[in-house]
Structures are given as structure tokens and as C-alpha cells.
Amino acid sequence: QVQVAESGGGSVQPGGSLRLSCAASGIVFSSYVMGWYRQTPGQQRELVATIRAGNTNYGDAVKGRFTISRDNAKKMVYLQMNSLKPEDTAVYYCMVGSTWGQGTQVTVSS
Questions:
Q1: What is the torsional sign of CA 25, 27, 30, 35?
Q2: Could you report the per-residue pLDDT of 25-72, keeping only the tens digit for each?
Q3: Hey, how many other C-beta atoms are within 10 angstroms of the C-beta on 22?
């Protein structure tokens, strides 16, 4: 059974940084595309970043500020978020293959 769990969310002031982590189990980790998505109330879930075989893809809203990375040995995927803005406030979800985590809240506010 595939399990995915996020951690690292929290509250930060504008301009600050956070790093989200995602742990996966029950899969051959290196074979899957991984990604981060986010969602705010009443809105569709939107792409933040994906990574597969070293290739990365970012949503326009986060390009140049966020970095996705993975550690296949640890079965972890990370999202380093810098220069955070209030509009980055959302629940962030980790996706591994077709399995989603429960989400972690990120709040950017002064």
C-alpha cells in the first residue's frame, strides 16, 4: 500500500522561507513522478512543481522562488520555498505517482 505524508508547513512572514518534506512508502520510489500542488478554498488544485528523472517543471507563480528536489534513497521529495508571498498561502499536497498526501498548511502573513 502506497503511503504519502507531508510535513514542514507552518506560518511565515512575507519574504520568508519554508521547506516542505514528503515521505513515501510502499513503492519503487525512483520510478515515479513526484510533485507538489496547492489549493485554496473554492479554487482548483494547482501545480506547484513536479520532478521526474531529474527533470523539473514549475508553475508560473513560483518559478524562480521554489525548488523541488528528491532523495531516492530516503524516498523523500522536498519543496524549498523562498521569497514567500501572501498569495502562496494554501494547503500544499504531495503527489507520488497517483497517490496524494493529506496536505500541509502554509500561511504567509505579516
A1: negative
A2: 887 777 789 999 999 999 999 999 999 987 999 999 999 999 999 998
A3: 26
